[in-house]
Amino acid sequence: MKSIIASGILLSLATPSFAGPYVNIENNAGSTGVEFDKSVLEKHVGYEGSLGESSSYYVQGGSAFVMPEGAALSTELSGKAGVQTNFTERLSGYAEVSAMTSGGIDMGEPISTNVKTGVKYTF
Known about the structure:
Layout: H1 2-6, E1 20-32, E2 35-50, E3 55-68, E4 74-86, E5 91-101, E6 111-121
Antiparallel strand pairs: 1-2, 2-3, 3-4, 4-5, 5-6
């Protein structure tokens, strides 16, 4: 559970029109060159809301089904959390932190983490 809570920050660049719970299903597939490596299907429950008039956040977590090429499927825990803020009408910034177990739900192995930050300028 700690990995879900601490897992990640994902930022949406548009302020949500309402605060509240949601469900998110996302698939990420990867390759090295032209060789397929694996696919990860995440099924998350989350909550999003605003932080004042110009910022928003969300936190989500749940199961992740890792499907490597030529290997057995494994079930992990994953999560994300994010924040976004509008600096001006045209300039916004965001940050995302995500995490996933790597040894199954028993959490016997280290947790994989990723951080993403950025700015967006709209013309």
